[in-house]
Design a protein that fits this description.
There is one protein chain. The protein has one domain. It contains 1 helix and 4 strands; from the N terminus they run E-E-H-E-E. A hairpin with a 6-residue loop joins strand 1 and strand 2. The protein is globular and about 40 Å long. The protein has 65 residues and is mostly beta strands.
Length: 65
C-alpha cells in the first residue's frame, strides 16, 4: 500500500467516546468490515529527526491475536 492517509481523532457527540474516522477507501483496501475487532499497539518510529512514538492498528485474527 503506497497511499498515505491522515485522520484526526474526533469526539462522538452521542457517546462522548473518541473515534478515528477512517476513509471508506482505506477500509475497503485493507479489508476491514463493520464489527471487526482491531488491536491498537504502541510502536517506535525512527526518522531522520529522531525516534517518535507511533501506533499500529491491525485486525484481530480468529485466534485472538
Amino acid at each position: 500500500m503506497s497511499d498515505t492517509y491522515t485522520v484526526k481523532i474526533e469526539l462522538d457527540p452521542k457517546t462522548g467516546e473518541m473515534i478515528l474516522p477512517f476513509p471508506q477507501e482505506l477500509i475497503d483496501e485493507i479489508g476491514w468490515n463493520v464489527g471487526d475487532q482491531l488491536i491498537w499497539e504502541e510502536t517506535s518510529i525512527w526518522e531522520e529527526d529522531g525516534e517518535f512514538t507511533g501506533f499500529t492498528l491491525r485486525k484481530k485474527d480468529d485466534r485472538g491475536n
